[in-house]
Amino acid sequence: MEALDRRAASHSGEARRILDVKLSRSIEKYAGDLENAELVTSDVDKSASNSLAGLVEYVSRSAAANADGRSSYPDMEMLEYFRKTWTQLSTERQFRQSLAQVPGNAGPLNSSSLVHRSLSLMRELSPGYLQQFMSYIDALSWMEQMNGGSAVPEKEAPRAGSPRKNTRSKPR
């Protein structure tokens, strides 16, 4: 609109009149847009304040209803039951996965066979320990995936130098 006003100022006659008409229409349209924006903004502000008032009312009603000591949270014993069940199911699933990775004709020193045998013993002797161990392995696996899927390479052990020569003098 400012550019149109500058342009109209440099003209005269019929050209000036046409540019002035365009400018006045633009100003009227802009004023209408501003009024509409103010109406929308006030409606949004009213609905937001109504929503906030509704939320405050809901919280206060919930607090009054729970004033007798009953909590709106689920029973913690039930949560613990489901957490324990989920942990057992997850451990069993992982145990079956480790069994699936053992080759049928694996020798006694096959690493997959040794891992599965260790997990089987843990499962028999201490199922709770197996669950803790599996959750620890899950955490380590998750951390490895977060680091790009590759383990940090270890430094090579220093190589042994050539064997020392006997520096004792030989009897002559």
Keywords:
mainly alpha, 172 residues, 2 domains, 5 helices
Provide the domain count.
2
Structural class designation? mainly alpha
Low-pLDDT residue spans:
none
What coarse outline follows from CA principal-axis ratios? elongated
* Strand-residue proportion: under 5%
State the order of secondary-structure elements, H for helix, E for strand.
Answer: HHHHH
- The overall pLDDT average reads 77
Give the terminus-to-terminus CA distance: 114 Å
The helical percent reads 55-70%
- The value of Rg in angstroms is 40 Å
How would you sum up the major sheet?
A: none
Oligomeric state of shown chains = single chain
Explained architecture:
With 172 residues, this protein is an all-alpha fold. The chain is built from 5 helices and no strands. α1 runs antiparallel to α2 (14-65), α3 packs across α5 (127-146) and α4 (111-125) packs across α5 (127-146).
List the helices and strands and how they pair.
Layout: H1 2-9, H2 14-65, H3 76-100, H4 111-125, H5 127-146
Helix pairs in contact: 1-2, 3-5, 4-5
Q: What is the structure about, briefly put?
A:
Helix content is 70%, strand content 0%.
